[in-house]
């Protein structure tokens, strides 16, 4: 299986990538923080993406591990990328009034 992780924080580094490596997932990592992305890709031997549109079409899982203030923008972007067969996992709880997410 192929998965995409969006984000490069501590939970990605300490939990998400190691867990996916145990179950032998093919991992792609996207982060706006180029330095952190390169570090994590080197440390865990995963493939980094400079642009989400370079993502292979066989992705089956997408993990959003980003601040909840960025969640909606990424969901809108991903919904336009023909990833109909991918499951979406949200690592960060979304807190706030529903009207803020419409």
UniProtKB/TrEMBL annotation:
<protein>
    <recommendedName>
        <fullName>Pyrroline-5-carboxylate reductase catalytic N-terminal domain-containing protein</fullName>
    </recommendedName>
</protein>
<dbReference type="InterPro" id="IPR036291">
    <property type="entry name" value="NAD(P)-bd_dom_sf"/>
</dbReference>
